[in-house]
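F.,

This is the one I mentioned.
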């Protein structure tokens, strides 16, 4: 389902039906825009085949929409500036080729001959001049229109429905190399007909043009578009939020069998660098799109990008996974408890694996060479694609992955594995939760995953200035064999009066390989300073949370989720009943509370808030540490509030989770009404 804010005024199905009816009745003239006839194309259709040698690996480039939309910053200077940066910053060398224009490049009306007219304010020298500039850099130019009578923007820019051959020829004459073909204002005309007509029109030009089908996955294009376009959107638009990225990931992953050279699943453009997620989350975004063999279209204004953003976008080892010529999309090996293992077969016989942590706290994620499909071998080379370092492993592939983070590894059954030092895994037995002034007990583990021993092993744990961190058992070992661990106890004390919140810890191990190579491995960790829960029954909206994430906007206390800034919600209302207390969230959402093994019960009335009318489908879950203890199944706005009660006895942490019901996060305003915790 599409989110109403993903384009400025993306037309709904209902609106399209009304437009069609009004046009048929002669009540609508499309605001002066000549409404195209929906007759058969004026040229015979081409042979339905896309064996044209285009997009044999997923397209890489840039699209302005996610950073500028139709704002004044979208113009000729921006497009040419992006082309300059592709060259100057090494992105062209990394594989980025396409500089793509999205909506709002044209004037609202065609000329007297029915031709498209570039906006002279944005593109004073025209599109061909921009294409020439981009081509001179060794790059390619992309453009946008819609398979309807208008594009998606409210200004009413002309779409290509009924003008396919004329518009395609204009694009070819300008030197366009890539077309993104959207789905707005389509008058209810069959999707396959509309997209096939443009396919034939592009082919008739004789110019090689990559064809990107953007119909939001509504008609399952993965089932019919392999001979229509080179890539097809599988979901609604992405937004610059963790929840949106996660929802799209989960919808795109099952479609792996449909992807391959020249026909790719497209989970939408990259949000890396736009500011709505952390760098850890952006690395996950980039890693996961790469392991899914997704198009990599940069969506941030590179003229303003940080060094951290360039470091992510320019990771050539991760890009090589996306661009592997075998063209396999990664598939899910396991996903229990939000600990995702996504494996991808590579042309050289190796496997790339993304160890992705969906949860809000660090997690150990593990798999094996055998589970990834590699043959039995004495040892394997394990390459960390973010650390850019190689190790050997006996077969275990594992790491402690930070909250919302991804460790990306390439595993090979080669004969050179012994030349690398052994892989060593660092971890803690539990997430560090510290009450100020009270020593917390932690246990670290340093484990040799390699076929060769790790020698002269030592481990240290450090915390913020003023904290006391002391080992309570041995912190060194002469050697560790395969599968053996150095386990060290620690006491960690935050000074009395330390405010609640998150603080950094660092677990560091050093060791030597059998050849004497010195290796240092560091695991950044987060310690949470917490308050003990109050005795009795409290409203959860009155208590501090450990972490809170929402698909759109922040988690709200005692109001619904308004999707944007804090405090923009309304009174929590479920099926006409107004609640004074509760939490308002938007799927995908997770809110966690420290309960310190002192609480017994969570209760709430849950459902989809009335403010979204008939829209929205969600499911509620309550987790006690790592165990789901209550859930609702999928709920819709038509259902009354559902009472939900969970026994959380003995839990250190309680998590309130809302998922999207499996259909994307459009309008998924979810309420934990009158939510209470009894301790």
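My design for it:
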């Amino acid at each position: 389902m599409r989110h109403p804010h993903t384009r400025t005024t993306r037309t709904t199905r209902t609106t399209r039906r009304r437009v069609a009816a009004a046009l048929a009745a002669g009540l609508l003239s499309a605001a002066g825009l000549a409404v195209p006839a929906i007759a058969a194309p004026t040229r015979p259709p081409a042979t339905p085949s896309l064996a044209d040698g285009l997009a044999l690996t997923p397209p890489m480039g840039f699209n302005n929409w996610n950073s500028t939309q139709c704002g004044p910053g979208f113009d000729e200077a921006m497009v040419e500036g992006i082309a300059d940066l592709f060259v100057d910053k090494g992105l062209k060398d990394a594989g980025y080729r396409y500089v793509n224009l999205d909506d709002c490049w044209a004037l609202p009306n065609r000329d007297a001959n029915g031709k498209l007219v570039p906006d002279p304010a944005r593109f004073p020298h025209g599109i061909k001049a921009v294409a020439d500039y981009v081509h001179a850099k060794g790059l390619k130019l992309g453009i946008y229109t819609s398979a309807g009578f208008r594009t998606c923007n409210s200004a009413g820019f002309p779409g290509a429905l009924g003008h396919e051959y004329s518009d395609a020829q204009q694009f070819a004459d300008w030197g366009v190399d890539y077309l993104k073909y959207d789905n707005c204002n389509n008058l209810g005309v069959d999707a396959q007909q509309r997209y096939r007509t443009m396919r034939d029109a592009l082919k008739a030009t004789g110019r090689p043009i990559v064809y990107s089908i953007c119909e939001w996955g509504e008609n399952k294009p993965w089932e019919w578009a392999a001979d229509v376009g080179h890539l097809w959107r599988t979901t609604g638009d992405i937004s610059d939020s963790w929840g949106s990225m996660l929802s799209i990931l989960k919808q795109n992953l099952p479609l792996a069998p449909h992807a391959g050279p020249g026909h790719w699943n497209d989970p939408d453009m990259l949000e890396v660098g736009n500011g709505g997620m952390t760098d850890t989350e952006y690395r996950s975004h980039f890693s996961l799109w790469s392991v899914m063999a997704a198009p990599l279209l940069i969506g941030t204004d590179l003229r303003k990008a940080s060094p951290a953003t360039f470091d992510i976008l320019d990771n050539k080892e991760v890009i090589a996974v996306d661009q592997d010529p075998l063209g396999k999309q990664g598939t899910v090996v396991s996903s229990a408890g939000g600990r995702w293992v996504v494996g991808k077969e590579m042309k050289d016989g190796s496997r790339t694996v993304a160890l992705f942590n969906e949860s809000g706290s660090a997690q150990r994620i593990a798999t094996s060479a055998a589970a990834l499909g590699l043959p039995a071998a004495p040892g394997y080379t394990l390459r960390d694609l973010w650390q850019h370092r190689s190790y050997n492993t006996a077969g275990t592939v594992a790491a402690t992955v930070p909250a919302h983070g991804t460790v990306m590894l390439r595993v090979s059954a080669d004969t050179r594995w012994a030349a690398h030092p052994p892989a060593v895994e660092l971890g803690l037995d539990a997430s560090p939760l510290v009450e100020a002034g009270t020593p917390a007990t932690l246990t670290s583990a340093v484990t040799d995953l390699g076929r060769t021993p790790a020698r002269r092993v030592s481990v240290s744990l450090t915390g913020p200035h003023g904290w006391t961190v002391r080992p309570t058992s041995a912190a060194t070992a002469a050697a560790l064999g395969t599968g053996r661990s150095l386990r060290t106890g620690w006491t960690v004390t935050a000074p009395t009066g330390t405010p609640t919140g998150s603080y950094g810890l660092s677990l560091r191990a050093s060791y030597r390989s059998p050849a004497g190579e010195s290796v240092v491995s560091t695991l950044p960790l987060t310690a949470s300073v917490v308050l003990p829960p109050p005795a009795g029954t409290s409203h959860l909206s009155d208590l501090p949370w450990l972490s809170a994430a929402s698909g759109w906007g922040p988690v709200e206390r005692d109001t619904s989720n308004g999707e944007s800034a804090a405090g923009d919600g309304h009174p929590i209302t479920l099926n006409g009943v107004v609640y004074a207390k509760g939490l308002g969230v938007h799927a995908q959402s997770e809110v966690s509370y420290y309960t310190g093994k002192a609480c017994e019960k969570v209760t709430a009335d849950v459902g989809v808030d009335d403010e979204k009318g008939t829209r929205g489908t969600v499911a509620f879950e309550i987790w006690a540490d790592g165990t789901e203890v209550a859930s609702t199944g999928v709920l819709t706005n038509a259902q009354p509030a559902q009472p939900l009660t969970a026994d959380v006895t003995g839990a250190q942490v309680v998590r309130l989770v809302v998922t999207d019901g499996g259909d994307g996060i459009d309008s998924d305003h979810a309420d934990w009404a009158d939510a209470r915790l009894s301790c």
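The two ends are 40 Å apart (CA to CA).

Talk soon.
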